[in-house]
Amino acid sequence: MELKLIYVDTPFWRAEVPRIALNHASIPFQDKRIPREEFLEARKTGFTNDGDFLPFKQIPVLVIDGISLSQTGAISRFCGKLSGLYPIDDDLMAAKIDQVIDMATDITVLFSNYRKISENEIILKNRKVFFEKFIMNKLTLLENLLISETSLSNGTTLFISDIAIWRVLGWLSSGIIDGFPTDFVHKLPTLQKTCIRVEETASIIEWVKKTYPKNYVHGNYR
């Protein structure tokens, strides 16, 4: 099976979940990182410069033996099954993991929609209010889910949901988003433990060392 994952050159969670899952299981894949300019053009045409098809004119896209698969959740589950980080014979556990992936998408879309109107200086000043009222509320709900569903945070089994949590909280707490606090993760101890556990996983340490920019802030977890 030939696999090619297409995204831009950044460790955003939408691409890192499948990238890390495949790398964790030593599954060969082409990690194709396209320039932003090429992506903007592909959003119009539905194709990359070398002809890879983007079904919904968006990324990530996973090309499997020439067949293009779109949507973060679908790609993450496929790679999770291949790598053993997503159950193939436990439908309930799979659905529990899906909740987390879908919540990560909800948070991303929530911020993306807000960012479209946040160029105004007044709104930028209110980003902290937006974070506390909306983003932190979502994260608290996720924290409570992990507390109640101990199978999702047992500290021994790595799931694709753990990788998503690690990168979403890393993104939100890194300081890259103007107006967002960087010291909130300690208020979410179960999510914090998940982030630390993922960051200390040997295969992920190797991946970060190999692919992340040296000055990249992974997040503020401790």
Task: Describe the SSE topology.
Blueprint: E1 3-8, H1 13-24, E2 30-34, H2 36-45, E3 61-64, E4 67-70, H3 72-83, H4 91-115, H5 121-125, H6 127-148, H7 160-173, H8 189-199, H9 202-211
Helix pairs in contact: 1-3, 1-7, 3-4, 4-6, 4-7, 7-8
How would you explain this protein's 3D organization?
- By secondary structure, the chain is of the alpha+beta class.
- It folds into two domains: 3-83, Glutaredoxin, CATH 3.40.30.10; 91-211, Up-down Bundle (Glutathione S-transferase Yfyf (Class Pi), Chain A, domain 2), CATH 1.20.1050.
- Helices cover 55% and strands 9% of the residues.
- The protein has helices spanning 13-24, 36-45, 72-83, 91-115, 121-125, 127-148, 160-173, 189-199, 202-211; strands spanning 3-8, 30-34, 61-64, 67-70.
- A four-stranded mixed beta sheet has the order 2-1-3-4.
- Helix 4 packs parallel to helix 7.
- The N and C termini lie far apart (40 Å).
Provide keyphrases for this structure.
Glutathione S-transferase Yfyf (Class Pi), Chain A, domain 2, alpha+beta, 55% helix, 9 helices, 222 residues, Glutaredoxin, 2 domains, four-stranded mixed beta sheet, globular, 9% strand
**CATH topology heading of the largest domain:** Glutathione S-transferase Yfyf (Class Pi), Chain A, domain 2
Got a strand count?
4
| Average pLDDT | 94
Strand content: 5-15%
Discrete helix count? 9
- Please state the overall shape, judged from the principal axes of the Cα atoms: globular
Uncertain parts: none
